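Sequence only, no structure available. Ideas?
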Amino acid sequence: MTAATGRHTPRPGAAPPARMILAQAALETRMLLRHGEQLLLTIVIPVLLLTLFSSVELIDTGPGERIDFLTPGVLALAVVSTAFTGQAIATGYERRYGVLKRLGVSPLPRWALLAGKTGAVLLTLALQTALLTVVALALGWSPRGNPLAVAVLLLLGTAALSGLGLLMAGTLRAEATLAAANLVFLLLLLFGGVIVPLTEYPDGVRTVLELLPVSALSEGLREVLREGDWPDWREIGVLVGWSVVGLGGAARFFRWE
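Reply:
I predicted one. Tokens follow.
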């Protein structure tokens, strides 16, 4: 009697990089959506700001409806909350607890791990943008402009702020990252043209604030969604410059332990 031959042929080895990146991105997204503090930062605060400041005239937003001024700024703030603040804090504590060190010696390449994190950020940002768009439309928002220009601005803003978030998480202690990321979020909310027009500041101060990535993103989105124009090359240049600084610095100085 001959022994039965199995139908399954073992194929030891790592999965293809694309499959590993997708799996890591899905895991990162599920972890973010299950975290109450991250949901507060990425969903609740932007929605509350949009609802509150569009219904109460606390600031002068210039000609036109307040919602048309506020929505592009809150969309830019959503990029800050997800790509910078949320990612910096989560990655900082993963580094502290040794999660990154263990993943770094797994079959998942380190570049694929960062690619998975970026994919999670983009997926979360897409969900944020869809939710904020629905809320803004319900509040009377009338967007204009080319959707492709909006997508380009959001991608450039995500690259810039994600790079800065990873640079902070990979160089500072987790506690310092937590404090610094939340402080930067608050400062960008107040001084990044999100809810207060940059024209309200003196000329010298405004010139400096216009160089911030969130200011460039906010103003660029307003030019597209409020005015129906293409973004100014200056805003594109600011976002590209911060992307090079953030991603280049993260690649050079990020510490896994």
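The chain has a mean pLDDT of 84.
Hope that gets you unstuck.
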